Structure formats: C-alpha cells, structure tokens
Description:
It is a single chain. By secondary structure, this protein is α+β, with helices and mostly antiparallel strands. The chain has 16 helices and 19 strands. The strands form four sheets. It has a seven-stranded antiparallel beta sheet with strand order 6-5-4-10-9-8-7. A six-stranded antiparallel beta sheet has the order 13-12-11-16-15-14. The two termini are 36 Å apart.
Amino acid sequence: xxxxxxxxxxxxxxxxxxxxxxxxxxxxxxxxxxxxxxxxxxxxxxxxxxxxxxxxxxxxxxxxxxxxxxxxxxxxxxxxxxxxxxxxxxxxxxxxxxxxxxxxxxxxxxxxxxxxxxxxxxxxxxxxxxxxxxxxxxxxxxxxxxxxxxxxxxxxxxxxxxxxxxxxxxxxxxxxxxxxxxxxxxxxxxxxxxxxxxxxxxxxxxxxxxxxxxxxxxxxxxxxxxxxxxxxxxxxxxxxxxxxxxxxxxxxxxxxxxxxxxxxxxxxxxxxxxxxxxxxxxxxxxxxxxxxxxxxxxxxxxxxxxxxxxxxxxxxxxxxxxxxxxxxxxxxxxxxxxxxxxxxxxxxxxxxxxxxxxxxxxxxxxxxxxxxxxxxxxxxxxxxxxxxxxxxxxxxxxxxxxxxxxxxxxxxxxxxxxxxxxxxxxxxxxxxxxxxxxxxxxxxxxxxxxxxxxxxxxxxxxxxxxxxxxxxxxxxxxxxxxxxxxxxxxxxxxxxxxxxxxxxxxxxx
Length: 509
C-alpha cells in the first residue's frame, strides 16, 4: 500500500486563500517600500509612470500574487502521524517536510478577524534553530488546531489522533480534548490597556516609525517645497515664531508626540488583552485585536529570561520580559519566533520571573564589576579625543571647531563609560546566574548554569597585568558576557558553570 493511501492527507480551507493573498501583498510591500519611497525615488517613479501605468502595474502584481497563492493552496497538503506532522507544499518542486513533535519548542494559534466567523485559525510551530516557522497551516478548523496543539504539548496520549475527512476529531479524541480544555490553567499576568500603551511608547518600534516618517516627510517636502512657500498659513507661522528654526523645533516636537501616541496605540492593538496563563508544563500567552494569537511554550524548552527596560521606558517605569528559547532571532509574540514578550510590567511585578520558572526570581542586590573598567575605557576615550584636539592646536589647516568636537566627544565618552559601569552587576546562587547591564536602558539576563554550552575566559594585556578577566557564557539562546571580574572569581564562576552543566540530571534540548 502506498504512502498516499496510508496517510490521511488534508487540505487547507478555501478561505485560507485570502490569507495567502494578503500575506503575499504584505511581503511585496515590505520588500519594496523603501525602494519606492527612499531618497526621492518615489516621486520620480510616479512622475515617470503616471497614474494609469501605476494602476496597471499594481493590478499585474496583484494577479501574480493571486496565481501564486492559488497554486500554493492547491498543492498544499498535511497530515498527522504517530509522532510527527507531515507537510507537502511547493509551487514547481514539491517538498515534503516531517517535523517530530519532540523537537517542537513553540506552538502558535492565530485568528485574523476574517477567520473568526468561520472558526478557522492559523496554526504554526517552530523548532530549535529554525530561521523561520517550520510549519504553518493557515486556515484550519480550531478543533483540529487545538488537537494538534495539545498533542504536541504532551497533554494528549501518544496514539495518533483519528481525524475524519473534514478535519473533525473522532469521539474518543474529542472527549480527551474536552477534558484537556476544562483545565484552563491559572492566570499569571494580565496587561491593562494603560500598561500596553506605556510599553508601546517605550518600545523600539518608535525609532522604526521615526525613520519611516523621516523618509516620507523629506520626500514630500522636497516635492512640494515650492507650494509650501506660497501658503499663507506657513508664512504667518514663520512670522509669529520669529525664525524658521523655531518652527522646525515645534514641528519636531509635534512629530515626536504623534509618533509616541501612534506607537502606544500599535502596542494596544497588537497586544490587546494580553494574558499569561500557567498550565503546569506549559506557558500560554494570548493577545491581539485584529488577529488573536495564542503562543504555547513548554517550560522545559525555555533556556533564558531577560527582564528589560528601554531608555524611554525609564521615563514612565515600563519593563518587559523576554522568554528565550534556542535560537537568537529578535522576535515578539506577533508572528515571531524563539522568544515571547510579556509587555507592560512594573518593577514591583518582577516576581513574575520566579512564577514563570521556579528559582528564577530576581535577587535583591548585585555585585559590581571591578572599578578598573572605568580607568581602562576612560584612558582610551581620552586618547581618541586628543587626536582632533592636538590636530587643531598644531596644524593650521585644521579648523578650530574640530578641537571643540574632540572635547565634546571626550565628555560623552566619559559619561557613557560611567553609566555602563554603574549598570553592570552580577549575582549567583550556584544554580542560577543573574547579569545586569545597560547604558541608558537596563536589562537583567537570567540563565541557568546547567544550560551553559561553552565557557570562555578572555584577558587583554591590561587585564592580565591587574588579574582581571571577561567571563563569557554561551547559552542555547546566545551569549552572556560579564567584563572585568577578578580573575580568581571569573575562573570560579567558569568552573561552577562547567560542573553544573556536566552533572545536570535534565539536559535542555
């Protein structure tokens, strides 16, 4: 009997075609947005093509995306076997992917607003080290997606689920699914709209918005500058403020207020009604307004935790947690991998780390690194700043403002080194290691010594002279570095990490 006959291959729902088309449009815009808008190319492009040619080109691109989505949807098949999920896909060449449940570290269920009336979801899963989602099933019934999720998460028995031709679970499996659904788990954390708004104003997406608005406004200003000069309103504003630079300051201020509000609103929509639920061996996060997402992490797959505060977050006391897994891609809940973001926390809520994983609570205090960190980097900053100062003093063709620039550079470097030193710190109880760092922002990395994969001790000539060393611990999710420790202490921490990793009774994948 052939493999085609033994496996119950299933197709995506017809409405999944809409998701594939929208995803294709989004990908096309994302990959070509700055090419069109950047450096005035957008205005020149529009002037060259004209409105009719632009519409015809857009229709052509849309038809290509639609044809590709139709072929992909028609050729896509999936099925679940004893301990794995099989996926067949491809446009020209047919590919078959087999992912074992034991390797899965992250399961996501997403439901865009246009899926909700039909009770369809977007199911995806990830494995350690994958550069993108290993499996994505856009447009399957919620019951089937929850069956897959519970099976992968280890809540179901090891036998394969019996699915009928329409993707419905068999009665025995449906009863097991109902039993699993009754154990909803305990609520660990819920983010209020105000907390999400603060998180959005403090997040790094603000700088992405600022860069995009800078490109857009510069192109618009370049194209319509002559028209703007003729506007009576602009002339009256310039006359009232007295000079153009004051108008510029006002414009920048209004732009920043607008972007702060926009970034906060994006976070409220993206993480709407964020809840973190404890289900014993699993942690489940739910969030989203336009697309409701559910992300499931197995506790044993979590390799690290970071409690972080951005520079803007320090202004209104907003923190967030990153739950890290194998792989070091920077991602968030909304369609991202290898880590989960818990947004909108206050410092008083830092005990959530200990409730997520036992023993990972933040310590009361941290030990400082050695003060020679200041001397080492201050001396190098001084040497770098003396070059432009000496050049302006002794070389007549070098302008005087170069010396002032060197002095300003020295002041900035001195302050930055002092802030960096003040934020560095570490603490350990023999099992866990907490590393605090930051410049304008702050972060605390929490790692379990038993999960260390490599240990490195690095010494430059200055550190060898003063019996100091940098300690670097290589973890599955990335590296953690603590500089300028006493060499004896660094070696002790390294030996402790190696001993903990070699004697651990449970090894993380």
